Amino acid sequence: MIYFAHRGFSSRRVQNTCESFALARERGATCYELDVHLLKDGQLAVHHDYSLFSTAGIDVKLADLTAEDLKKYPLHNPFTQSTVYVPLLQEVFPLVMPGLQLLNIEVKNDANIYPGIEKVLMSLLEKYPQIALKTLFSSFDQSTLRRLRALNKNARIGLLTRNFDISEALALGVESIHINQTRLTEDIVQTCHENGLKIFVYTVNTAKEKERVDKMGADGIFSDGW
Fold first, then answer.
1. Whole-model pTM?
2. What is the pLDDT of residue 130?
């Protein structure tokens, strides 16, 4: 069973921040999950939502911000006295690199809201070959996954899905299916394994939930803390 630190150690630190990933590593994490967006200046930011409303209380979209703009919006932090901001992807890399086994980068690009994000992401990873080899790209947007594979035929991709369809996964050539634990069934696990695919489940935060998905045969879980 693979344990992904979901947005870092997000039950004890602000999700998708440097503090969150640093704590996850301190607690022994070797596999991580994070989300990326393309900023107005062509840099990649690590954040879940398309807007800062849920994390900073202001409804401004990341697509309209530059890297410098990010420092104008401190994030709500109920955990520590630190002032935290949305980090750039390259600021997170050094935090997860020691002992890294697998980094799941979820590309936020529904309806191609960020034209060219795939090329920017691949270009950045070329500067970090040790991380690139251990990166698994995922997205709900299948066109994004196709563009990633077109840029790099060896790119490792996983399909995030709300409506499981093995034919879609096989057509994309993914190595894994990522699905919410509430939608997981033994039939889905069996179908994935019969077709040589791994099944990763989110977000599993209790012992009871872990026991359930483990019994079904899931290959990995995304967890906010452990």
1. 0.98
2. 95
